[in-house]
Structure formats: C-alpha cells, structure tokens
Amino acid sequence: RQRYKEEFAAELRRYKELCAHMDGVNERLAQLGKQLDEVPEDSAQYQVLADVGAAPLAPSCPEYQEKKQESKTLRNKLFHIKRMVSDYDKL
C-alpha cells in the first residue's frame, strides 16, 4: 500500500506538470486567436501570426501530441492506483 501511495505521489507530480504545460499552450493559443481576430485576414501581419505564432503551439505538433498522450496514460495509471489502494483499504 505504501509503495502504491509513493508511486501515486510521484506520478501525480508529473501529471500536474503536464497539465500545467498543456494549459499554458492552450492559453497561448487562445491569445493568438484573439490577436488574429484583431487583424485583417489578408494582411501580412495575419500571415506571420498564423504561420510563426501557431506552429510551435499547434495541437498537431509532435511534442504536443506526446505530452497529451503521456498525460492521458498517467491519468489512467493514477485512477488504477487509487482504485487498488481503495480496494486494499476495503479488505
């Protein structure tokens, strides 16, 4: 039980880091969207913002996809550990 709790705590820290990173990316994408709404679509500034600003943040970016998948995997693992500890406590 103690090992599960320790593993849970370690994995929870990593999960929270990933969530904070993903939240930051989503916030920057929202800010970029607001900036794009303020400039005409046919302007050079719009094109620069769309091409340069969004590229490293895009949900299709491999790094984003890897972190998203790791986050999903950790979430499932945390639920599993929590369920196992709960089952143990019921015995």
Automatic annotation (TrEMBL):
Pfam family, one: Occludin_ELL
GO biological process: one example: snRNA transcription by RNA polymerase II
The organism's place on the tree of life at top rank: Eukaryota
One term of GO molecular function: cis-regulatory region sequence-specific DNA binding
InterPro entries assigned: ELL/occludin, Occludin_ELL
GO annotation, cellular component aspect: transcription elongation factor complex
Domain OCEL: 1-91
Coiled coil: none
Gene3D superfamilies: 6.10.140.340
Family: Belongs to the ELL/occludin family.
Protein known as: OCLN protein
Species whose genome carries this gene: Eulacestoma nigropectus (wattled ploughbill)
Name of the encoding gene: Ocln
